[in-house]
Amino acid sequence: MCDRLARILLLAGLALTLAGAGRDPVWTEAEQQEFLARHWRLPLAPQGRPPARFGPLETSLHPEKCGMCHPVQFGDWKESIHAGSMGPGVAGQLVELHRTAPDQARACYTCHAPLAEQPPGQPGYDASLTPEGIVCASCHVRKWQRFGPPRRDGSLVSTTPRSRLPHNGVTRTPAFLRAEFCKDCHQFPATGYALNGKLLQDTFEEWKAGPYAARNVQCQDCHMPDRRHRWRGIHDPDMVRSALAFEVARDATGVALTITNRGAGHRVPTYVTPRIVVSGELVDAANAAIAGSRRELVIGRAVTLDLERELFDTRLAPGQAVTFTYPVASEPGRTLRLRVVVEPDHFYAGFFEALLGNGAGAGAAKIREALEASRRSAFTVFERAVPLE
Ligand code: HEC
Ligand code: HEC
Ligand code: HEC
Ligand code: HEC
Ligand code: HEC
To answer: Looking at residue 280, what is its pLDDT?
Structure first.
């Protein structure tokens, strides 16, 4: 009996030693930074020739092929803005840019369709991959090797030898869980285009300077909760509601609506393209608006269509609040209608309109489609009727 117990203990000890020998590799801070720099060296290098043992499913860069084995991520991704990143607004401009400014066209692909196989004229070019936008492989495949986050239990290696797993398994790194992973497409470099001393795209730095970075809340924690691949943002009413708190107060001088950025890890909005229109308007008993009574406040960073000038910047940093005041306290028979409307594509609506006016060339039909879509995307996030009797 004792002998058996000793042997079991010995075996258990041996198993522990073996597990120790195959312990997860450690990714030091320097190794993670190195990984990120290599992974996001843009423009991306071609995948090259796939390993000989790969079957047809594994040698495809098409998201629907990944989706055969990863249906949850595919289902989410398909509905996301990343999947739509080669929509008519981008594609319509590219038609003309390919002709007039090929270098500029190439630059658009680095963020909107970043695989080397997506822009025309590259080795391995696959025309059917171009309209698919930011595909799974943009973030997960380099030289046919799969990269991904640690398993949910934190482990980095699989118990099955990699050579026995589909696509030779996965190289797992905690770098996938960091805000830096999103940075190369959502942050201009320090030398990038700036207006009024502020970069045109500054989301990562806004996050880094704010309270969320300090509390170790990464982009993924808010935009990929439970590892979902939805990336909801300013186009999603529930996401915007989670960003903003609304509070109505009333006193002898009027009605005040205070809006606070309580849930976005950066400015609301972070880009120059959306705007949020706060308005107050008197309505009569039949709910008809009283002419001339409308007042507005715009939250956003307004720039001219040629991007030459910033007109104003009223975006809300994390925790920051703004108060809209309607200076009427009482008006018998009237009701004050407060409303907050989000226009996620405000800048683009004006931009596409101007582009069509100047002649969008062969891309005109697509630009017209994009203009319609940008006008349709507005929605109301808050509405309140305040009786003023
Ligand atoms: C034939 C089925 C199959 C196909 C096709 C496939 N995968 Fe996988 N993938 C797997 C399996 C099985 C695993 C689990 C490997 C392991 O246990 O380490 C996996 C793991 C992964 C992981 C790590 C997931 C985790 O659990 O943390 C990523 C990321 C990944 N695959 C990306 C892709 C991408 C991107 C594509 C398409 C370019 C793709 N896969 C195509 C079967 C597949
Ligand atoms: C550094 C990365 C980056 C580059 C390079 C880039 N974009 Fe974008 N683009 C974005 C991001 C992020 C958004 C979403 C935020 C926004 O609307 O500003 C976007 C949004 C857009 C949109 C609005 C959304 C849509 O699908 O209609 C258009 C149009 C667009 N880009 C066109 C272009 C064109 C044309 C180029 C090349 C001249 C280009 N972009 C280069 C990152 C980039
Ligand atoms: C913009 C980059 C990006 C794209 C595009 C993308 N992923 Fe991911 N993926 C990530 C990141 C980042 C994580 C880790 C997220 C986290 O843990 O917070 C991840 C995690 C995963 C995982 C692990 C999920 C889990 O539950 O452990 C799988 C599998 C995966 N991705 C497959 C895919 C597939 C398939 C597609 C395309 C349909 C895809 N990804 C598109 C960035 C991306
Ligand atoms: C390869 C470049 C690239 C990478 C990497 C990338 N994005 Fe994006 N992202 C874009 C572009 C381009 C758009 C705009 C697409 C469009 O509208 O045409 C976008 C759009 C978004 C949106 C939607 C905004 C809206 O308008 O509602 C969110 C949220 C987002 N990205 C978050 C992330 C997060 C989080 C990560 C990191 C896990 C990430 N992105 C990584 C290029 C990228
Ligand atoms: C604390 C949660 C949180 C964190 C952290 C966070 N975001 Fe957001 N993000 C939001 C919310 C909520 C919205 C919707 C409101 C808005 O548009 O600002 C949003 C909107 C966006 C948008 C839509 C465009 C726009 O003009 O607002 C993009 C793109 C985006 N986030 C990217 C990122 C990136 C990249 C990071 C990391 C550097 C990040 N976010 C970190 C919560 C977060």
So the answer is: 98
